[in-house]
Amino acid sequence: MIVEERNYAFAPTDMARFLEIYEKEGVVIATRLLGNLIGYFRTEVGPDLNEVVHLWGFADLNDRAARRAALWKDPEWLDFAARCPAPVHQRNRLLAPMPWSPIR
Predict the structure, then answer these.
(1) Longest alpha-carbon distance in the chain
(2) pTM of this prediction?
(3) What 8-state DSSP symbol labels residue 11?
(4) Which of 42, 61, 74, 101 could form a disulfide with 97 if both were Cys (CB 3.0 to 4.6 A apart)?
(5) Does residue 71 carry a pLDDT above 90?
(6) Which domains are assigned to the chain?
(7) From CA 47, how far away is CA 76, in angstroms rounded?
């Protein structure tokens, strides 16, 4: 298993709008296509305010590539994405769990 960590930073005026539309529409579409949503968070304090962090689990890199390709071909997702505020910064990382990790 691999875990993809995705971090999106928004302008302060866009954060609430993004979270509202993602909760109503985006999470259902993304979960249907990407599968294993491990967690979805927002920053509360620290240097990276107005940021959302989400973790997605995939069997391997091929599984991730196939699911992300399907996401960006899905008309429902494309419509949703076109109406969302764009992040001002994005960072993605692929994480490999250690054998003793509760998530593997």
Answers:
(1) 41
(2) 0.91
(3) -
(4) 101
(5) yes
(6) 2-95 (3.30.70.100)
(7) 34
